[in-house]
């Protein structure tokens, strides 16, 4: 083994680089499925939206969402947002970042931790779902009617299955039938 070491000595740097590159390749290969799942989950399924809690939202849109929140959920959501309008002290700092502020007041998310965002996600998500569904139904009533018919109204009626039970015997009658 020592005889081989003296032959490998001139190539020691190349061997170490090859080992380091193998380590990098293994990490990249193992990270690839995670990257692809994020692309599918957030990029395709959710349209690039990682969570339902926006950093800033127009006051009119917040009012739409609040209409579909319970009183305690509404209080929890509004506690984590600050209303900024043209006359606010912070308006000049937010105006470059949110140009809509020049025409309409906005709610800006306070500094909240991940636990609070995790708590707000299902609350805001349900409200967003209801609002977007209603907006789509108002935009195209015929399509909404067709979707409703497809989902609930045209299903064939379900027939109860025959009940065979050791306590009832093998009759085709159910206990409530005489």
Walk me through this protein's architecture.
- With 178 residues, the chain is mainly alpha-helical.
- It folds into two domains: 10-45; 56-150, no CATH class.
- Helix content is 57%, strand content 6%.
- The chain is built from seven helices and three strands, in the order ααβααβαβαα.
- It has helices at residues 2-8, 12-45, 59-66, 71-79, 91-95, 114-139, 141-153, and strands spanning 56-58, 81-84, 106-109.
- A three-stranded antiparallel sheet has the order 1-3-2.
- Helix 6 (114-139) packs across helix 7.
- It is elongated, with a radius of gyration of 30 Å.
- Mean pLDDT is 82; it is low at 160-166.
In short:
α6 (114-139) packs across α7 (141-153). The protein has helices spanning 2-8, 12-45, 59-66, 71-79, 91-95, 114-139, 141-153; strands spanning 56-58, 81-84, 106-109.
Alpha carbon gap, first and last residue: 93 Å
Helix content: 55-70%
Low-confidence stretches: 160-166
Find the count of extended strands (DSSP E, 2+ residues). Answer: 3
Topology:
Layout: H1 2-8, H2 12-45, E1 56-58, H3 59-66, H4 71-79, E2 81-84, H5 91-95, E3 106-109, H6 114-139, H7 141-153
Antiparallel strand pairs: 1-3, 2-3
Task: Offer a few descriptive terms.
three-stranded antiparallel β-sheet; mainly alpha; single chain; 2 domains; elongated; 178 residues; 57% helix
């Amino acid at each position: 083994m020592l005889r081989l070491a003296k032959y490998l000595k001139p190539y020691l740097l190349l061997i170490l680089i090859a080992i380091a590159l193998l380590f990098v390749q293994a990490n990249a290969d193992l990270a690839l499925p995670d990257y692809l799942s994020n692309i599918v989950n957030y990029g395709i399924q959710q349209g690039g939206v990682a969570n339902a809690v926006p950093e800033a939202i127009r006051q009119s849109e917040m009012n739409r969402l609040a209409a579909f929140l319970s009183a305690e959920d509404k209080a929890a959501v509004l506690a984590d947002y600050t209303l900024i309008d043209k006359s606010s002290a912070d308006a000049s700092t937010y105006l470059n970042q949110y140009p809509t502020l020049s025409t309409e007041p906005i709610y800006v998310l306070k500094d909240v931790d991940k636990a609070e965002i995790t708590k707000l996600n299902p609350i805001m998500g349900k409200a967003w779902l209801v609002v977007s569904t209603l907006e789509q139904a108002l935009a195209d009533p015929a399509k909404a009617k067709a979707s409703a018919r497809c989902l609930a109204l045209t299903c064939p009626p379900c027939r109860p299955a025959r009940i065979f039970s050791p306590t009832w015997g093998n009759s085709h009658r159910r206990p409530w039938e005489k």
